[in-house]
Amino acid sequence: MDPSPTSGPPAAPSPRAPLAPDTDRLADVVADLADAVESGDFHTDVREGVLLDVTIGRVRCLMIEQEPALRVTLSPRERQVALMVAHGRTNQAIATSLDISVWTVSTHLRRIFAKLAVSSRAEMVARLVSEHDYAPLLAPGDEH
Q1: Is the pTM of this model over 0.90?
Q2: Radius of gyration of the chain (CA)
Q3: Which of 3, 45, 67, 128 is 20 to 30 A away from residue 54, measured at CA?
Q4: Residue 81 backbone phi and psi in degrees, to 5
């Protein structure tokens, strides 16, 4: 007796298996990339930090020079203000705590924003948390 297919809803497609690296294809692209570099057959944009931009087949190879991480130094007062902001204090509460005017707090924040190249309090705190020098001060119990 020949088993017949069962009727009913079609089976759900199985989840896509992770792609295994195709080392042969990668080796070919790298070899072609080396040829392109040797022949000078690629684009650059020094102003934008693009060292190499070339498409090999359907693979775009883009090498961008990263700028070194900027080491930002805040003054002791700027550090106090930044840490108070990180702990959720308002400008008024910071001013009262440090016995300075709200205007002075705002001035410190403008200078901190400029030094860190940020435009909001949340962005400032995120940037400080990412800096190893400030992270322990913001979350003392959460050291790496």
Answers
A1: no
A2: 27
A3: 67
A4: -65, -45
Q: Is the pLDDT reported for residue 45 higher than 90?
A: no
Q: Tell the residue number behind the tokens 């790496």, with chain if given.
A: 144
How far CA 49 is from CA of 3, 77, 85, 99, 118, in Å, comes to 65, 35, 34, 46, 21
Cβ neighbours for 60, distance < 8 A, ≥ 6 positions apart: 53, 54
Q: How far apart are CA 134 and CA 138, in angstroms?
A: 7
Contacts of 122 (CB under 8 A, 6+ apart): none
Tally of residues, the chain: 144
82-109, pLDDT tens digit by residue?
999 999 999 999 999 999 999 999 999 9
In 3D, which of 131, 40, 21, 23 has the Cα closest to residue 86? 131
Q: For residues 110 and 82, what is the distance between their CA atoms, to the nearest angstrom?
A: 11
Question: What pLDDT, in 10s, does the model give residues 76-89?
Answer: 999 999 999 999 99
**What is residue 22's three-state secondary structure?**
coil
